[in-house]
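Reviewers of the previous submission asked for a worked example of the structure-prediction workflow described in the proposal, so we include one complete record here. The input consisted solely of the amino acid sequence. No template or homolog information was supplied to the procedure at any stage.
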Amino acid sequence: MLEILADRTYRHLFAAQVTALVGTGLATIALGLLAYDLAGGDAGMVLGTVFTIKMVAYISVAPIASAVAHRIPRRRLLVALDIVRAGIALTLPFVTEVWQLYLLIFLLQSASAAFTPTFQATIPDVLPEEARYTRALSLSRLAYDLENVVSPTLAALLLVVLSYDALFLGTMVGFLASGALVISVLLPKPATSTPRNVRDRTTRGIRIYLATPRLRGLLALNLAVAAAGAMVLVNTVVLVQGGLGLSENAVAWTMCAFGGGSMLAALALPRLLEHVPERSAMLAGAALMIAGLSVLAWLVSTAGLTWPQLLGAWFAVGIGYSGALTPSGRLLRRSSHPEDRPALFAAQFTLSHACWLVTYPLAGWLMTAFGPVTALSGLSAVAACGAVLAMCLWPSADPVAVSHRHDDLPRDHPHLRGTGDHVHPYIIDDLHRRWPPGG
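From that input alone, the workflow returned the following structure tokens.
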């Protein structure tokens, strides 16, 4: 897997991703401490609002950003967004009112909503071969999982000698390092696209997404991933400290079990996907998440919660989480022309975070109102609905090339080349606005 780091451009982009993730992780910890300083016992409500603002920014800004991003050279845009994020991070230590925090978080996450899909859409152009791109997706998943370990550890070391305000400076350094790494390489120019108005560009990615059967299945799997992930991210601390009476260290180890399962799956996926279709691998991942939550719910209802059971369940859910999530970039790449790729990655960013916007509060409400058995069972049921929908929406026979007709085009149209029925890789675009019946 690591051989793709021999590519200098990708190596610098991967390092940019890692440094930005570490900086983001430091900010997450610092935000919790800042919220407590500002609101005391109401810090939980403040943080809940912060996460909601984050999701709203992601959902609303990403499509608009993708619509106007083509006007700015890709490298210049990414570096500018990193500088903006660094500047906002630098202002966070000076916040004295909750409304100021909300405003800055919206601006910060809006910049991230523009940065992330553009960055993700760049990688397939840097690594056009599918096998190398698959390894890049697995490395990206590993980076996210390692961030969950590295950032808290680094934060703990810094807080021994510094105040939490210093963590925001670490965030700033992470974003500036990311910008420096991006500017140090030449990025492939995106393919030239047909001139379109802003409205068309804003909605184009979502229209392509919802018109493609495999991507409709991916959206349903996003719901399954969000349901299981929300249970882990929202309720781990409640289960460990509230339910088991264990320490903060136990919370960290429990999250490590989830991250360890996710990293194991990410390492195995490149080889697995050489032999198994994405649909089978991703549905198997969803099934493992559902099984992990359901079995833990049954164990808690019959014998009570124990820490080894929780560790094992979270490890299994982590494997399923990565298995269901990591191959999504391959589907997006296969379902778009290069010029439409940024819009489609922005659509995935928007729609997947819309799922999280539903499951985050659902996880907290079920746990608070009804307890762990109902929360585990309820979110397992939501994940199961997503998996069943994916099976229905994403046909098991999903060929790249599809036989189809163009009765709406004249016989002498260059695309037809004098033929009626013809076969080629089918992608939603201006000539192919709907998926062919039976395709």
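The mean pLDDT is 84. We consider this example representative of the routine output the project will generate in years two and three.
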